[in-house]
Amino acid sequence: MSVVNKYTPRKKTTPPNSIDLMTEQDIPSFTATTFTDLAIQAIRRGMTWTVFRPEHGVFLAEGNGYALRPKRQQPLSFEIVRDPRAKPKVPNSLYISSPLVDKLFFGILPGYDRLHLPDYRMGNIIDVSTTMYSLDPTGSATKKIQDNRHPSFAPDCLFGFADIIPLAAPMLRQRGSTIIRLPIPAQYTVGLLTHKEGFVVFRHRLADFIASLQPATATDDTSPPAPHMALWVRDKYRELMKRFPEWEDEVLANSQINNRSLEFLNACNAAWDDCTAHLHALTIRYGKHFYRNLMAAHLKNAVNWWHQAWNRMASAQARDHYGLRNYIAEGMHLYWDYLDLVVREMHERGWSGVPEATLREAWVVMVFRGFCWWRCHWMMEGQDMCKPAPERLPSEYYSEDTGEKEEGYVIVAKD
Question: pTM, whole model, 2 decimals?
Answer without folding.
Answer: 0.83
